Amino acid sequence: MKRLISILVVGAVGALLVGGYLFFVFFEDISTPLPQAPAAAQAKAVQSKQVVYVGVISRYTPTTIYQGYQPIMDYLTEVTPYRFELKLGRTYWETVELLASGKVTVAFLGRRVYLQGRDRHGLTAILKPLNDDFQPTFQDAVITRNDSGIRSLQDLVGRSVAMPSQDSYSGNWLKAEGFTAGGQGKFPLKKIQHFEHHHTVVYQVLRGNFDAGVVRESVAEEYEGKGISIVARAKPVPGSPIVTTKHHDPAIVGAFTRALLAVDPRKPEFADRLAAWDTEFRHGFAAATDRDYDHLQTILAPLKADK
Length: 307
Hints:
The structure is a single chain. The protein is globular and about 60 Å long. It is 40% helix and 20% strand. The protein is of the alpha/beta class. Mean pLDDT is 85; it is low at 21-35 and 181-185. It has ten helices and 13 strands.
């Protein structure tokens, strides 16, 4: 009996020692890493990816850009070997300079600033967005307050108009083509003023500071029925190009391009994801070439280049 008791005591002590060792290894010994949770492991994998910076022109406020463009970066990081991060330009031309200097690899540019900078900086268009009919064209819109009495371009003669950046196509379309196409002479407005962001133009019109404004169609439709009416639209033209330069890494640009060409809102895997993207990019993309934008140069030719 004494021998049995001794065996039991020794066994119990052994069990305590083994248990204590295991406790030390798993909970106290910091030299032994704990098994990582899936989310932690995934975050570590993302952090280890090569960072690629993507530029965006200042057509919206930084907050609005981050809200609409960061989900695109998250998607690109998820499906490519790279970690894509935004680098915003304070002006349209600052984004071009970031691209030309290699500080960003690709950039979401405007049509006019791309046309003005492509020869000087070796810019090349790689993608253009699709509209809700899955066509690669978009329109600019002339907006006014519902109570303004303005119903057409003809009603704008002698009025004041707010416009977005002078470096944007939207900020120049009406001057270059709008009235000429309508047979109203070259530019019969009383006053124009350019503002940094499209949403600022809407604000100026809503406040009654200007009789009308010109903005991207997507912005106009965002406020239509909220005190704003659309009274005219420009002819459809290719959407704002996504651009790179000829000296950037083709592997990175190729991965970026393939990932965005794969976007299709008609596929179930994109149904929820795209709701957070900027409205311009929720319908996918088409491949672009520099030739797609050549005719816009003809439209803008009557205007004196600012750069």
